[in-house]
């Protein structure tokens, strides 16, 4: 065995021995019998988890072997460590169970541009909240969220807020033919004690009925009224609300992280931060068309191999004369062309 070259012949130099290579074992720990918990909040590397069997809430860290961003709000996880929930104790997320659904989006801004991210897991419904005015509705945002809902195996529900400021009928007509539920909400003024907006009780009752005993997610632009809706559904949530900028017509971010809340009548509502982009770079053309079920039926008559893009000469979309369908075709082709870029109407 040759002597290790340490770069000097000085006998006084002592070299720390190298680390031995320990063979890796193929046997992995079995977490199938460990207690399960559901993640309801993520805050600066700490995961707030509710143990399903005991309903004890614990703070946990992620196991080192789990990849970065492999745990999302709503995930069911195998839990180890201290599950007592006492102050200054930490549990550990050892494994993540398979998801029944997931809401994904691709970042389009900053250094994380192009990175796919799972926002919420294991939710069955997606409430897409949009204002009829202040800020103005963006059909591109609604269409992107619909695509994400269908792609993530979630039922979409469109909630139109601030209907007292403008006529909601154009929006209703645009999406009434789709397989989704639709809720309209009118403002009832401002509460003199709390200073918070009062929402139409009928709209609150409709949302409560649709969300009962289900896990739902709220998404929407900043300033459309998501936090106001959460506060009306769950007064104890106390989510911050903000005004819309009169110059830009955009809302200010008031919610900084996704949080899951228990609904009084049963069920879970997950409030997400207001978004200004909702990238779909992870969704292929075929999956994109699934987000437009009204167009998918028409596209079945297209020639084989038709991409439904603007340049196709025999695409049946170009034969449509219905104005509502033409708007949907325009939105679909815009997403098809620039799905990996920010594109708002």
Automatic annotation (TrEMBL):
It holds the Pfam family RsgA_GTPase. Residues 1-13 have a biased composition (Basic and acidic residues). Residues 1-31 are annotated as: Disordered. Gene3D superfamilies: P-loop containing nucleotide triphosphate hydrolases, Probable gtpase engc, domain 3. The keyword GTP-binding applies. Its EC number is 3.6.1.-. Keywords: GTP-binding, Hydrolase, Nucleotide-binding. InterPro entries: G_CP_dom (IPR030378), P-loop_NTPase (IPR027417), Ribosome_biogen_GTPase_RsgA (IPR004881), RsgA_GTPase_dom (IPR010914). Residues 121-276 form the EngC GTPase domain. GO terms for molecular function: hydrolase activity. Residues 112-278 form the CP-type G domain. Residues 14-26 have a biased composition (Basic residues). The keyword Ubl conjugation does not apply. It is an enzyme of class 3 (hydrolase). NCBIfam families: ribosome small subunit-dependent GTPase A (TIGR00157). This is Ribosome biogenesis GTPase.
């Amino acid at each position: 065995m040759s002597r290790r070259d340490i770069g000097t012949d000085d006998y006084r130099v002592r070299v720390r021995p190298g680390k031995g290579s320990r063979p890796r074992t193929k046997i992995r720990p079995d977490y199938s019998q460990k207690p399960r918990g559901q993640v309801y909040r993520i805050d600066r590397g700490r995961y707030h988890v509710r143990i399903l069997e005991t309903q004890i809430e614990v703070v946990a860290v992620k196991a080192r072997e789990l990849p970065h961003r492999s745990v999302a709000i709503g995930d069911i996880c195998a839990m180890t460590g201290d599950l007592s929930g006492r102050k200054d104790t930490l549990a550990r997320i050892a494994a993540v169970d398979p998801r029944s659904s997931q809401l994904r989006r691709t970042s389009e801004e900053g250094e994380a541009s192009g990175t796919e991210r799972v926002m919420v897991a294991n939710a069955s419904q997606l409430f897409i909240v949009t204002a009829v005015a202040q800020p103005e509705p963006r059909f591109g945002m609604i269409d992107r969220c619909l695509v994400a809902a269908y792609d993530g195996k979630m039922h979409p529900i469109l909630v139109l807020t601030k209907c007292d400021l403008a006529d909601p009928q154009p929006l209703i007509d645009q999406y009434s033919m789709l397989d989704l539920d639709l809720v309209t909400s009118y403002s009832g003024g401002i509460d003199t004690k709390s200073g918070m907006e009062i929402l139409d009780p009928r709209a609150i009752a409709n949302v409560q009925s649709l969300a009962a005993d289900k896990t739902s997610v709220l998404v929407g632009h900043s300033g459309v009224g998501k936090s106001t809706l959460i506060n009306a559904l769950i007064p104890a949530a106390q989510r911050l609300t903000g005004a819309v900028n009169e110059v830009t017509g955009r809302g200010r971010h008031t919610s900084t992280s996704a949080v899951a809340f228990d609904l009084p009548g049963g069920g879970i509502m997950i409030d997400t931060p207001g978004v200004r982009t909702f990238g779909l770079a992870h969704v292929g053309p075929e999956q994109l068309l699934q987000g437009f079920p009204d167009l998918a039926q028409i596209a079945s008559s297209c020639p084989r191999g038709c991409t439904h893009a603007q340049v196709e000469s025999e695409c049946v979309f170009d034969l449509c004369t219905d104005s509502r369908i033409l708007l949907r075709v325009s939105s679909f082709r815009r997403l098809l062309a620039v799905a990996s870029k920010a594109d708002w109407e």
